[in-house]
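Good day; I would like, with your permission, to put a structural problem before you. A protein sequence and the structure tokens that stand for its backbone fold form the material at issue. I would ask you to consider whether the tokens describe a fold that such a sequence might reasonably adopt. I set the record out below, with my sincere thanks for your time.
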Amino acid sequence: MSRRPSLGLTLGAAISAVFVLAALGSLLWTPYRVDALDIAQRLRPPSWSHPFGTDHFGRDGLSMILVGARNALAVSLVAVGLGMAVGVPLGLLAAARRGLADELVMRANDVIFAFPALILAILITAVLGPGAINAVIAIGVFNIPVFARLTRGSALSLWTRDYVLAARAAGKGPARISLEHILPGLVSALIVQATLQFSLGIIAEAGLSYVGLGTQPPNPSWGRMLNDAQVLIGTAPLQAVFPGLAIVITVLGLNLLGDGLRDRLDPRLRGGR
């Protein structure tokens, strides 16, 4: 008998869906052009024509939020994809070969984990230069050891299963076993981890943009909107509220989605409830 989705999973999926739809919808339509300046309308409070008000250049706040969602989605999605594309094969290699290969992969992971995620991202973008592409690289580099370590740990337990031992007895090599028998057993864990890393990517992209190393003008970014709003906090405090809420609600929704998927897909958790 199937269980109903939990409230957290349902709420997280709904918030995440709204975020993705807003980001994709901004490709087709926004209330105003984000590069259209109207100084006469600067710092207007929320109204029917500008539900989120206008910024210090007279740009529509809602349009900026929508396009900022698109940029956050693109950077985080590609960064997580980069982390998985490199980290998962490394984890499979470490689990299959053990010995020197395992030691090299794990020690490289330790070096990256020695730096806090945001500090490492700032360091990389400071060296490579500001911009969305370099932000993707910076966030993706930190995602690599996350997926490598998860893949290795989970794969090691699968290598002791009877069906894997049977595949080895049948003459299959480590590479073929990893692809045909180990990787399919890791899909659920990887999906959950990717969802959680996606939420961290949103925060990292906003943080890099806040310090001027992420998405560059004229492309809107939630982090840079917060940076612009900090000098106006006394005169126009709502300038910081809307991008701040966008970050908080989006990250909350993705975390709820990740936790709900973990509870739903992990057989140990299913059995204990």
About this structure: The chain has a mean pLDDT of 89. The radius of gyration is 22 Å. The chain has eleven helices and no strands. The longest helix spans residues 61-97.
